[in-house]
Description:
Keywords (chain B): ATP synthesis, Cell membrane, CF(0), Hydrogen ion transport, Ion transport, Membrane, Transmembrane, Transmembrane helix, Transport
Membrane topology (chain B): Single-pass membrane protein
Pfam family, one (chain B): ATP-synt_B
Distance between the termini of chain B: 172 Å
Helix content of chain A: over 70%
Largest interface: A-B, 44 and 31 residues
Transmembrane segments (chain B): 6-26
Helix content of chain B: over 70%
Order of helices and strands of chain A: HHEEHHHHHHH
Number of helices of chain A: 9
Subcellular location (chain B): Cell membrane; Endomembrane system
Oligomer: heterodimer
Amino acid sequence: MAVENADHAAAGAEHALTPATYIGHHLSFLKHSVNQGGGFWTLHLDTLITSIILGTVVFGFLAWVVRGATAGVPGKRQAFVEVCVDFVNDQVKGIFDKSFSFVAPLALTVFVWVFAMNAMDFLPVDIIAKGLHMVGVNEFRMVPTSDVNATFALALSVWFLMIFFAIKAKGFGGFVHELFFAPFGAPKLSVNPISWILVPLAMSANFLFQMIEYISKPLSHSLRLFGNMYAGEIIFLLLWMLASTGPLGAFFGALFGTGWAIFHILIVALQAYIFMMLTVVYIAMAHEHH
Amino acid sequence: MDINLTLIAQAVVFAAFIWFTARFVWPPLMTLVEQRQKTIADGLAAAERGMKSLEDASSRSDEALKAARAQAQDILAAANKQATQIVEQAKTTAKGEGDRIVSAAREETTREVNSVKEQLRKQVGELAVAGASKILKREIDAKAHADVLNDLAARV
């Protein structure tokens, strides 16, 4: 990671980059408009390509290991995969046991994929930017999870699954009933005229609370991951910018960059873990009856 | 922070990977792990059974050893008894035999003594006759006095 500092310093001299343009450059997506439409009709090719390649590699690896796996004494490769799968398995089992055959693989997918995407933060951005520049690609963001589209895609998929499982577990009627009668409950409707006011009041309070919950869940789910990875990326960029101040700056940039990278290993793993756990917890909560 | 089509594309990719994991990764691996768990459980149960049978076998062998020891003791006692009996019998037999030999020897001796006495008597008679004939010098006819000599010899 130290190499790109000097690299960048050279690049900085050539194009007379300011810190703002340097960071702005590293934070701009490789965009592709669908049907000449702007705005919403844009694809971030970098996010998609990186995440698809990573997913293909990691899940292909898992499937390949599983294909050659044995029920007898496992090899090192199989043992490694089994440790990962067992870890996820234990976490999911600890939380709930319904819909297990779907939720456990879902949790594994989320954990492994998010971990791989987060880990892209460790790649030296400037060297990759240089390499891609040579083949004519000027904008490329390596970390899919620092694209809010990717994290929202995951979080909203989980959100829809959550609603699906809530309806599956409680029925559509039960689901709608819960929207108005949980979490506070409502008094019984009686001849007492006060209850005529109290019941709609309680129902609207419940509904409001439920709506806040349903909106905040995907928001916090996705933005937590996005924020962590985005901040990590920016801190890397700021540290690499130290290199533009000269050799001493390059040295300290490398030193701090290494320190941040080591600390970032924790964040990468932790955020993947948190994302997986929240996925499982949300779906587990959807199964609960109130 | 611009939300765009990437979100939907990413969600589709996500769904594809979930399907892939749920289809090709999770079930086969879980099957294998469960198989191994079963194998291990079976192995442990077998070990338990082996332990138990070992215990049984050792207790059985202890019993057999005890029985064998008791039997050996019995056999030893019987042998001892028989040996004593044999020795006793041998003693009795030997004693009888000895007695018999002694008495036979004694008889032999007596007979020997008697015959020697007889011979001696005869010789003394002859000596007496020879002495007497010498004394009487042909006065006595040996044939005529044979009965007298015999009488003498018998008396000696």
